[in-house]
Design brief:
single chain, 58 residues, alpha+beta, three-stranded antiparallel β-sheet
Length: 58
């Protein structure tokens, strides 16, 4: 399967708890960290929830 790279580009401070938990589930705990996940619908849904905090690199 294809993979996508997800990078946290904005701070999680003052974000709702749901978005903080989503970032944790993606493996993003600090700014400018990059994680690689398989491109599945569940991962895409998680990215959609925090799309204003992350950028996607293919």
């Amino acid at each position: 399967m294809a993979t996508i790279k997800i990078k946290q580009v904005r701070s999680r401070i003052k974000c709702p708890q749901v978005q903080k938990r989503t970032l944790d589930a993606l493996g993003l705990r600090k700014m400018n960290r990059v994680v690689e996940h398989e491109d599945t619908p569940s991962i895409r849904g998680m990215v959609e929830v925090v799309k204003h905090l992350v950028s996607i690199e293919k």
